[in-house]
Description:
Layout: H1 9-19, E1 34-40, E2 51-54, H2 55-59, E3 63-69, E4 76-82, H3 84-90, E5 97-102, E6 107-111, H4 112-117, E7 121-123, E8 125-126, E9 129-130, E10 140-142, H5 154-159, E11 164-170
Amino acid sequence: MALLRPTSLVGLLLLTFFLLPANALALETPTGTVLLKVGGEIGVTNVGDEAHFDREMLLSLPQRQTLTATPWHDGTVAFSGPLGRELLAAVEARGETLRVIALNDYEVNLPVADLQRYDVILAMSQNDEPLRVRDQGPLFVIYPFDEVPHLLNEEILTRSVWQVATIHVLGD
């Protein structure tokens, strides 16, 4: 198996790159303002034992736009941001529950199953404008209420955290 024995640094790097799964590659270090910290039961980190994300890093994840009405807005609003399940995949989350914490210390447990079953996003924009803190940003958990009307209930509304700052992945 001489082909698998690299004889140079380039060979070693190429071998490592092709043998590692794509999601095993490390996250880059944020260069902009950190909008989100993810900790707990995760396999990929970039700052200590956490994964920190700036706006550009979050925009690099698969995005979705959700058109929906909410109890907090007039009419239908276009929210866009990364899919929650893609964020969890990027950090190799290993748990069934997320502890979502807002800038004002509001905390709620959110089942990972919600992110797998529905197209829940971490909205970064509302009607193509970046969400600011005073507009419930910089990150807002948005469920597809108009697409899945039974989600519009008190339990799910409490999981629709705005001003998200931290997510802790809780073990089983």
